[in-house]
């Protein structure tokens, strides 16, 4: 590139472009942007070669470019130019795919493989295809300080973390996914920035002085000079979808976006993404993470909604988790009765205006089943939050037997909503997924570790058992152990996931988008449930003793229990299910006469 990036610094008196061989004063435009023309050959670079650069603001710095695509030396150092158009894409046959009917697989690049890189993750794509995955969802890859963390402490949103392979490796990964028939969803964080390496306030009013959230200052979305800040976010989203060929974005914690404008940032973003989708002639998906249970997010804009494609529904997770584990502390308390799971399966949200004992107030509002299809809710029995935010990062595998793990899989994959799997759950991975950080600053690292331990001590945990997030072993323990796949108990569960994905693919009832096609029967005392989706039935025995469930005469498509033998026994009008078991029945047999 022969031209350095422009920079928005509306309150600066002077801005210099700093290069390895010197610096150059930049010229201010009336709109608060500064510009300077630079020929890289003037600074010893070959024509078209990448150049390292930064910006000095009012004599301070140099600081990296807020829109930097490449930070090879870390978030405190010079940015490096990167031209995504130079990559020769091989995904010309990829036409994208809609979210409806799909299966998402959530993974963290640093712990998905031993190497923890994008190129290493590419080597596991065939495994994902074998379990019916349609979309690979990557936890945040934006540049952060340190070598490893979850990704939610990013500070340079346009750059790909160098430890994962940088922007070139990201292009190779997306390209390989598309050539394998897999879409890519990128997790992005627009509600806050990390605690180290955030130089945005040096440039201008990116942060709000009026509003904060759980993680610190919020972005300035509605105050003075907020138009360029909103543009900074929207342009970032369009970069992933356009320049990097990504198929969708998961928008982190949108309830933490402080925006009082008549046109909310999410609605504005959704409208621009829809325009890009039409231009690219492929589906583009926006998925919100929200704890508001507000259907406005996924209501079409012509019905006064924001027009996002989908949103996470934690109510599903909580209801399934409680039904299987019996945990009822904290926000799990309201989900103790089996009727909570029934309501979630039948209506989408549990808290739809009902009283939340955890919040000590009413929460949520009902979905309109006439305008919101079932697939707009993304659900999981495990995900990075619900595992990693536990004191010791333990998976369901640590508490449940094989039959219970199978029930969790069946409810997720055969239920009414868009299923999302968390890496390793498909074989019952026993490795934990813990909260890990690598802050280079000793004070920040100590504060993070002490805050984590204090949080769980207040909930009754012994601080000695809570992993130190700064301990490198906490990160190492969280890496998947792929050798488990060769063990019979893990192989059996993996085969179940493959069978469930096949059933989803082969039986249209199991991907029906209509709430009207759902019917649930249950017995709270006997601890069984029957989920009917059209002419297909999923019978579940949560109890530790055999139970008789009412059932038609359809063929048994699949059955699974802790003990493989004698899972089901037919009797007139019912099926007796073994403890901790489920069975899937097809439509009633039709007499050819």
UniProtKB/TrEMBL annotation:
GO molecular function annotation: 4-alpha-D-(1->4)-alpha-D-glucanotrehalose trehalohydrolase activity
Biological pathway: Glycan biosynthesis; trehalose biosynthesis
Main enzyme class: hydrolase
Chemical reaction(s) catalysed: hydrolysis of (1->4)-alpha-D-glucosidic linkage in 4-alpha-D-[(1->4)-alpha-D-glucanosyl]n trehalose to yield trehalose and (1->4)-alpha-D-glucan
Membrane-spanning intervals of the chain: none
UniProt-annotated binding residues for substrate: 250-255, 314-318, 384-389
Keyword Nucleotide-binding: no
Catalytic site positions: 252, 289
All copies of domain Glycosyl hydrolase family 13 catalytic, residue ranges: 106-452
A GO CC annotation given for this chain: cytoplasm
Record GO biological process: trehalose biosynthetic process
Enzyme Commission identifier(s): 3.2.1.141
Keywords linked to the UniProt accession: Carbohydrate metabolism, Cytoplasm, Glycosidase, Hydrolase
SMART domains the record matches: Aamy
A Pfam family the protein falls into: Alpha-amylase
Predominant cellular place of this UniProt entry's protein: cytoplasm
InterPro entries: DUF3459, GH, GH13_cat_dom, Ig-like_fold, Ig_E-set, Trehalose_TreZ, Trehalose_TreZ_E-set_sf
Subcellular location: Cytoplasm
Site (Transition state stabilizer): 385
PANTHER family registered for this protein in UniProt: 1,4-ALPHA-GLUCAN-BRANCHING ENZYME, MALTO-OLIGOSYLTREHALOSE TREHALOHYDROLASE
Family membership noted in the UniProt record: Belongs to the glycosyl hydrolase 13 family.
Protein name: Malto-oligosyltrehalose trehalohydrolase
Organism annotation: Cryobacterium melibiosiphilum
Lineage: Bacteria, Bacillati, Actinomycetota, Actinomycetes, Micrococcales
Gene responsible for this protein: treZ
């Amino acid at each position: 590139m022969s031209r350095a990036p422009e920079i928005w610094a509306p309150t600066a008196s002077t801005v210099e472009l700093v290069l390895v061989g010197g610096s150059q004063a930049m010229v201010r435009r009336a709109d608060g942007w500064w510009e300077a023309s630079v020929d890289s050959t003037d600074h010893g670079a070959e024509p078209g070669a990448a150049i390292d650069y930064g910006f000095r603001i009012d004599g301070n710095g140099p600081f990296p470019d807020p829109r930097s695509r490449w930070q090879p030396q870390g978030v405190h150092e010079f940015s490096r130019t990167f031209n995504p158009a130079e990559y020769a894409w091989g995904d010309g046959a990829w036409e994208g795919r809609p979210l409806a009917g799909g299966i998402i697989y959530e993974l963290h690049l640093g712990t998905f493989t031993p190497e923890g890189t994008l190129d290493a993750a590419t080597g596991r794509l065939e495994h994902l295809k074998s379990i019916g995955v349609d979309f690979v969802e990557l936890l945040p890859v934006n540049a952060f300080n340190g070598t490893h963390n979850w990704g939610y402490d990013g500070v340079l949103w346009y750059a790909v973390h160098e430890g994962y392979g940088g922007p070139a490796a990201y292009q190779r990964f997306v390209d390989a996914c598309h050539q394998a028939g897999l879409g890519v969803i990128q997790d992005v964080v627009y509600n806050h920035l990390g605690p180290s390496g955030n130089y945005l306030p040096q440039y201008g009013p990116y942060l709000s002085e009026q509003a904060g959230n759980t993680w610190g200052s919020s972005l300035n979305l509605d105050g003075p000079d907020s138009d360029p800040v909103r543009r900074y976010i929207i342009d970032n989203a369009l970069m992933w979808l356009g320049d990097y060929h990504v198929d969708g974005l998961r928008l982190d914690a949108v309830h933490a976006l402080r925006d009082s404008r008549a046109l909310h940032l999410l609605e504005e973003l959704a409208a621009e993404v829809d325009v890009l989708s039409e231009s690219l002639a492929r589906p583009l998906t926006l998925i919100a993470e929200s704890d508001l249970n507000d259907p406005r997010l996924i209501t079409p804009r012509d019905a006064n909604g924001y027009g996002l494609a989908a949103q996470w529904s934690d109510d599903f997770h909580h209801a399934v988790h409680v039904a299987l584990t019996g945990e009822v502390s904290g926000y799990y308390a309201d989900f103790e009765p089996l009727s909570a799971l029934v309501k979630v399966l039948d209506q989408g949200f549990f808290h739809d205006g009902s009283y939340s004992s955890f919040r000590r107030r009413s929460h949520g509002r009902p979905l309109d089943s006439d305008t919101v299809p079932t697939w707009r809710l993304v659900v999981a029995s495990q995900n990075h939050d619900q595992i990693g935010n536990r004191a010791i990062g333990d998976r369901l595998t640590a508490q449940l037997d094989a039959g219970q793990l199978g029930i969790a899989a069946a409810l997720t994959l055969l239920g009414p909503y868009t299923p999302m799997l968390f890496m390793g759950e498909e074989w019952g991975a026993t490795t934990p997924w813990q909260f890990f950080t690598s802050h280079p600053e000793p004070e920040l690292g100590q504060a993070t570790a002490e805050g984590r331990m204090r949080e769980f001590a207040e909930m009754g945990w012994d601080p000695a058992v809570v992993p130190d997030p700064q301990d490198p072993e906490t990160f190492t323990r969280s890496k998947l152990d792929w050798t488990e796949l060769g063990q019979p108990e893990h192989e059996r569960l993996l085969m179940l996931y493959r069978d469930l994905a096949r059933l989803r693919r082969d039986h249209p009832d199991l991907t029906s988008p209509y709430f009207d096609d759902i019917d649930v029967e249950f017995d709270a005392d006997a601890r069984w449930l029957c989920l009917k989706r059209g002419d297909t039935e999923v019978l579940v025995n949560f109890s530790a003793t055999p139970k008789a469930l009412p059932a038609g005469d359809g063929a048994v498509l699949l059955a699974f229990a802790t003990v493989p033998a004698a899972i089901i026994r037919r009797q007139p009008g019912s099926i007796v299910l073994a403890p901790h078991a489920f069975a899937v029945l097809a439509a009633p047999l039709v007499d050819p006469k």
